Amino acid sequence: MPYICSCDDNHMETIKWIHKNHTFIAGPREDYRCTLQGERLYIFQNALEKTNAYCRKQNIKRTLAICLPIVCVSLLIGLLIFFKIQTSRRRKRERKNLRSQIELGEFPMKFVAFLSFSSDDAELVVNTILPKLNSELQLKIGTNRVLVCSGDRHFRPGYALGEEIIRCIEDSAVIILAVSKHFCQKEWCRKEVQETYDQNKPIILLFLERVEPDEMGKVLQKVFNRYTHASWIADANDGHIEPDWSVLCDALLDLTVEQLEKNRVN
To answer: What is the reported pTM?
Structure first.
């Protein structure tokens, strides 16, 4: 009757005992065999050696099965952290270069952003949002230059409205759409949205109030479904923006850098 050769401690002890006490074994030695993974081995020849080698391989496999995923996950986390640090450093360098361009008058566009809004929302936008946005951007960059374009302040008198919309969008790196129910209903606002989309400019949606998707035009709805947005929240202190001004300004600067790079490639 063959014995079993395996990594089980009891099986190993049995084979070792037989091998060690061979002088007390009765009968031919050839009759003492064990089975290892379907293979029959002679206990007094190579059974112990082959079983030990097999068990070493199994231990290595188990160790690799435990350690390899841990190592892979650790490497992946390390790479993600590395690329995140590199991306953060690259963005800081790009923002610094952008600030230098603006300070030295080398910025290839007239404005960082064009703020589009409905005349029905002019009181909120012109008196509160526009000056705050411009001042926060100036503070980020370290300049007194006007960085945000708006129709009321920068459309040239006597020129066709459509022509001025196109010009201001062309002169700005990023377009901010102050979206409200009034904005969605205005023909010229819809034209500004379409022109921005046609020029393939980066768009930031700033919602002044809750607007349902079916109230938006097709292009605006497409932008809404594809990109994240900011919101103006009314409160006891005349309202605030979410995310905060710093996050919005950083997004504007990063999108500006991307737009400039895209212009250079094209």
So the answer is: 0.66
